[in-house]
Input
Amino acid sequence: MALDGDLAVGRAKAKILSELIMNLSQKLAAMGLAAAAAFGGATLVIPHEGQVLGTYVDPVGILTSCYGHTGPELKPNQAFTEQQCLETLADDLSMFDRQLRRLTHPVELTQGEHAAYLSFIYNVGAGAFRTSTLRKKLLAADRVGACNELPRWVYAKGQKLPGLIKRRNAELKVCLKEIANVATTDF
Output
């Protein structure tokens, strides 16, 4: 009996999460984000960054706010509204999406690759993505190899972080989802 109750609770939580993701994805799209960026933001970035309506210091020691936003404009003890955080997230996703598209040109990414790599570049930055083996493999048409590089990026300041392991596994799953349907000579 308890197992049935746990299953029902699990299904209810999954439904609520699905509705939240859809709602956030729609809000991000309404803010002018492309569908792929809104999808990536809602399904990977938001759940793994979490929402903090103020500034905090992340595990690497960087002053951060909202959904993992960093920048010189942040000051300790700032507070933000949910709307301000969503707007900042949309701006950040848009910026990282432009960087991702530039750094992966001429590869036409699947929606899954796009979402996974957008979450990845949002987390590690464009500089790390630019010099990564992941990018080199992607540009060399080794799409599966590129996706399989994601789980290697689970360290911060030399320590393996459980949150990064979880995030990279989610990114990997999304990244590989549509790869079988993509010819290696797309570009």
